[in-house]
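Q: Given only this backbone (174 positions), what sequence would you predict?
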């Protein structure tokens, strides 16, 4: 029995969007892929998700045109990882607005610190998801840096279609 209704044919665009994006793992996977963690093992480690759940979500996200499979060399063999499609990259304002909302409206856990969204073009922190609150430019993944003090990280996002090989293991979950 399904946990909820199938909204893929709904007239309401919010229902149709939630039909694709309503599972919290979907947005977390997109966040990680936009951070260059498109390899299965890096996603599993970063998210703390089981292989079975991750496999199901990745398969569904490829079918929904949020991710594409990308070949990468691994020693003498070729493996497949995942890269964001334009549809997934267009979710950047949603993800960033969720981060801004979370900063404003949820309690900071012990050991936490402010996450800054830096627009690399102008060098300023933005407090908006879609366009820079400092210079007004539309925010693109390749022009964004997420500063996460609790990880001592300045994560540069990657554009749609790119799988980076810089990370073979991921940091603790965000």
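A: Predicted residues:
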């Amino acid at each position: 029995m399904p946990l909820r209704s199938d909204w893929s044919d709904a007239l309401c665009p919010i229902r149709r969007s939630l039909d694709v994006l309503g599972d919290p793992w979907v947005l977390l996977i997109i966040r990680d892929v936009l951070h260059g963690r498109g390899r299965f093992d890096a996603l599993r480690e970063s998210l703390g998700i089981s292989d079975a759940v991750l496999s199901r979500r990745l398969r569904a996200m490829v079918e929904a045109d949020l991710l594409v499979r990308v070949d990468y060399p691994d020693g003498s063999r070729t493996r497949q990882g995942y890269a964001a499609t334009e549809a997934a990259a267009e979710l950047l304002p949603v993800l960033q607005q969720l981060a801004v909302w979370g900063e404003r409206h949820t309690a900071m856990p012990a050991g936490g610190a402010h996450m800054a969204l830096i627009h690399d073009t102008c060098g300023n922190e933005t407090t908006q998801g879609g366009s820079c609150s400092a210079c007004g430019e539309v925010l693109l993944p390749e022009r964004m840096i997420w500063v996460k003090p609790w990880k001592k990280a300045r994560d540069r996002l990657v554009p749609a279609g790119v799988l980076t090989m810089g990370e073979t293991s991921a940091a603790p979950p965000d």
